[in-house]
Amino acid sequence: MDYFLTEEQQAIQEIARQIAEEKIVPVREELDEKEEFPRGILETCARSDLFGVSIPEEYGGLGGGVMEMSLAVEELSRACLGVSVSYAASFLGAYPIILYGNEEQKEKFLPLIAAGEILGAFGLTEADAGSDAGGLRTTARKDGDSYVLNGTKQWITNGGEADLYTVIALTDKSKGARGASAFMVEKGTDGFSFGKKEKKMGIRASSTRELVFEECRIPAGNLVSKEGMGFIIAMKTLDNSRPGIAAQGVGVAQGALDVAVNYARERHQFGQPIIGFQAVQHLLANMATGIEAARALTYAAARWIDSGARDISKISAMTKLFGSDVAMEVTTDAVQVLGGYGYMREYPVEKMMRDAKVLQIYEGTNQIQRNVVGAALIKEYAQKT
Ligand code: COS
Fold it and tell me: Is-catalytic flag, 43?
């Protein structure tokens, strides 16, 4: 279907597709096996200006928005979710600065992120603050011209690899989530270290680690916005980034469909290619339909957010949950189409299925997304009556 992309959007899509096919597909199996961070591929993305797609022009980016980020993420995800999440997590770290940073913070960090010279990351989750993001315990104590951070963030994508971390910490413990604030913490700061690299089911090329803060002193100027805004900043960041998870879903599902259709055309059983059997055709038809619906919703949501719409939480949550559910279903069906071969690591679909699972979990489980949609419906209908 023609989504009427601009010339610039088509160029972003084309560049990301080329990197995916030429640089990622040949090494994705090895990156997965070795759990190796795709530093070289990300450097290629940087040289092709892909880290700048959603950074405003005045800070060295291409001036696009969620749509441009989603297009790039979709193409990279078609080849490997472990690579695409490492790329996308840099935006997750940058969004709080784009949305709430002051001029000095934007001028200092955004051009470096846009150029891919530094990688970003976002630190919200803790051992006891997952779905209940407001249950965080990491603290930031004001001390003269500094804040002093203490606590541990868990499962942080790009942990150890990123240079700049946007971290949510409590400046007023008595207020819970309403006493949270957002800070930028640079790698190498005294008192800031990393826990072990997690061993994961999928997205194994990506780095997932703890961020450990022990009397970590940062300049007071690294506070984003003002004290008490941390939870709102985190929620707004997720509202903007969740369509990117749907784009990951669309990409990995498309990659799986490509493999499944080509396999079904080649594989002969009962004297004919299995694509001739209606049972297989129906599986493929459902996969293709889900992907197109998820893509249409993702692009529509991204464009709507980029238009400056305000109440984006519901649509963003719907997009994330739909795109990730489609990804899980399609990658599972792709394994089914390939049968015994699909279960073997020699073929890419088992990796796609393992990778896809996390999309239903990270950036808010799909149960939380349904809560967000449900809460929005209650509010909307209460206003109508
Ligand atoms: N935008 C702006 N403000 C928001 C918001 C949003 N999307 N969502 C909530 N808020 C505000 C609320 O308006 C409320 O403000 P007041 O204190 O002024 O009333 C405040 O934030 C607290 O909101 P709420 O009471 O709804 O928070 P809850 O603790 O019930 O939690 C959920 C809300 C469950 C939606 C939140 O904790 C969440 O998103 N959890 C999942 C976290 C997640 O995605 N983790 C992944 C890690 S990041 S990769």
Answer: no
